[in-house]
Amino acid sequence: MNTLITGAAGFIGFHVARRLMERGERVLGIDNVNDYYSVKLKRDRLAKLGADHGGAFRFIEVDFADSRALGEALEGEEFAGIVHLGAQAGVRYSIENPSAYVQSNLVGHLNLMEVARHRKAPHFVYASSSSVYGGNETLPFRVEDRVDHPLSLYAATKKADELMSETYAHLYRLPQTGLRFFTVYGPWGRPDMAMWLFTKAIFAGQPIQVFGEGNMRRDFTYVDDIVTGIVAALDNPPPDDGEEKAGGSKAPHRLYNIGNNNSEELTRMIEIIEQACGRKAERQLMPMQPGDVRDTYADISAIQRDLGFAPSTKIDVGIPKFVDWYRQYHGV
Predict the structure, then answer these.
(1) Does 101 participate in catalysis according to the annotation?
(2) Angle 266-277/194-204 helices, nearest 10 degrees?
(3) H-helix or E-strand containing 3?
(4) What pTM was estimated for this model as a whole?
(5) Which residue out of 93, 154, 297, 326 is catalytically annotated?
(6) Domain annotation for the chain: domains and CATH numbers
């Protein structure tokens, strides 16, 4: 059987598909390949998956927020597991286009849970976000913390996904694991993320906009470490034993932070990019943007305890790897 990966043309979905196929599994990827960012980049990811893994990878272009189209696309398929990574991403864009988030992140999440329920998938792993912590001021962020005050609609949809998953785990005993990702970066990354934007501007000789006056901290997590955590979660569905799980559920539903467990200053990230690019950036200090949080920092003790997760890539190593890939991909 295949493992179903949604958002297979996306950054993390691409890397998860590669990891699963590298260990001999078959993957069915779905994605609507929208134009939120470069369609060419998404097509290039899909092309590489096909070129490197041949028949182990199948792809269907479909919008999973369209329940009828999704049902037709997946007719007759059964899955060894589902990794639901597809979503409308971006904190700032959720302020400009909120309806896109309701369709993709709420309706889409429900549709995939219905697929998992009716196909009796043994495990449904889904992407949440560190954004759910909103204005929390106590660091590091723990899965036990209350997350009732999101600062963006994007964050609110991810919190809502967690609540819907809790309901399905309770009603239908559907094993689920939600993963709160912390600032994922690396080769084949997203062009709307700061690391890509800064690298692009530096090579182009243009100024970079540094929000929060540069006084922000992020738990930057290299994509290979993220994928290791996702696969570990996929391989270990939560038991339906009535015991309290990470995140507080007594249903078969767990929540984990998945980060680098190290909050770095934004200025330190910029310095490493400058070193990797071999040139200095012209910095324009900007105020905080609506929906942004000042600091993020993941307490990963729950996923360490349960799954042995141990991120190993420091930004001093990971950022140069991203810049090297960026140079090669863009020929700069």
Answers:
(1) no
(2) 40
(3) strand 2-6
(4) 0.95
(5) 154
(6) 2-186+222-260+297-311 (3.40.50.720)
